[in-house]
Design goal:
Elements lengths: L1 H15 L22 E7 L1 H7 L2 H7 L5 E7 L5 H10 L4 E6 L4 E10 L1 H5 L6 E4 L15 H12 L6 E6 L19 H18 L5 E3 H8 L22 H18 L19 H14 L5
Parallel strand pairs: 1-2, 1-5, 5-6, 6-7
Antiparallel strand pairs: 2-3, 3-4
Length: about 300
């Protein structure tokens, strides 16, 4: 039944938005690099990319990987449209954080960073994009802004062979009461199906085959035995600090690190040791396995 709903929504999207609202130059995408001396990953996003990558340096350190540079360029709630506007107006609203030695360091604080502070900082090998969560399941919010943002990234990243990757975010918790949830009639299942439909369409229309399936992992975990009070969120939509952030970081690792270096997140020993968010080995196995399964979803 859920598959039928997803297909129906997808067909409706195709009917309503058969072509882009504005003509955009097309840019070819490139495969993930293989065994580079240094791998450089930039996430252009919002608080959801902030959540999903927070524990990625810890996973890298535990795996003995010390040649990955991470960048995190975000504005809370930022949409594809706003990223384009920030670039065009040379706005300085971003936070820019960076990990060079498997530890996040703030380079530009809130309302200090610009789009180019992040994009122009390194010859990024992988650049991830995502939509703001309230609009993540609404195709009318993607076109023309996604192809426009891809063009901006292509024109301003110093690495012409960078891989554009999509970060699929998650649906809200069932008990989330924000008006943003009204777009989906306060239905987690509908929101998740709409997000999936948009991802299916953008993969095809904009040549983005690699998807970081955080949304898949979270939705699958919500059906499992490891339950949390707010379904892996701390407030109905942001990932909780203990399980949600760990699970989504594992998805990023399995989707971007394993194909490049051949190292899986399975068996990774990072547990947030010594903090209030430390997890057990059994919990880690559950979260890692969910990430591994999710990473196969869009292939």
């Amino acid at each position: 039944m859920k598959r039928i709903i997803r297909i129906s929504i997808y067909l409706l999207l195709l009917f309503l938005f058969p072509i882009g609202l504005l003509a955009q130059e097309s840019y070819p995408n490139h495969p993930l690099p293989q065994q580079p001396d240094t791998l450089r990953i930039l996430a252009i996003g919002n608080s959801f990319s902030d959540d999903a990558t927070e524990y990625l340096p810890g996973l890298l350190e535990a795996a003995g990987i010390h040649n990955v540079i991470l960048g995190r360029l975000y504005i809370g709630g930022c949409t594809l449209e706003r990223h384009c506007t920030e670039f065009e107006t040379d706005g300085h609203e971003y936070v820019y954080r960076k990990s060079v030695a498997n530890e996040w360091v703030t380079v530009k604080r809130y309302k200090e960073g610009s789009f180019m502070d992040g994009v122009g900082d390194e010859p990024w090998d992988i650049i991830t994009l995502q939509q703001g969560s309230p609009k993540s399941g609404r195709w009318d919010s993607y076109d023309p802004w996604l192809p426009k943002l891809i063009g901006i990234v292509r024109q301003n990243c110093s690495n012409p062979n960078a891989t554009i990757v999509w970060h699929q975010t998650w649906a809200y918790a069932h008990n989330y009461e924000s008006r943003n949830f009204a777009n989906y009639t306060y239905s987690q299942e509908l929101m998740y199906a709409c997000i999936e439909s948009c991802v299916e369409k953008l993969r095809r229309d904009y040549d983005i085959p690699v998807v970081i399936a955080s949304g898949v992992a979270v939705q699958n975990l919500r059906k499992g035995k490891l339950q949390t009070e707010r379904e892996y969120t701390r407030d109905g939509f942001h990932m909780d600090y203990k399980y949600g952030r760990y699970a989504t970081a594992c998805v990023w690792f399995e989707t971007l690190i394993r194909p490049v270096f051949g190292v899986s997140v399975k068996g990774n020993t990072f547990r947030n040791q010594g903090t209030e968010n430390e997890i057990t080995e059994k919990e880690a196995r559950t979260l890692q396995n969910a990430a591994i399964q999710a990473s196969k979803y869009w292939k």
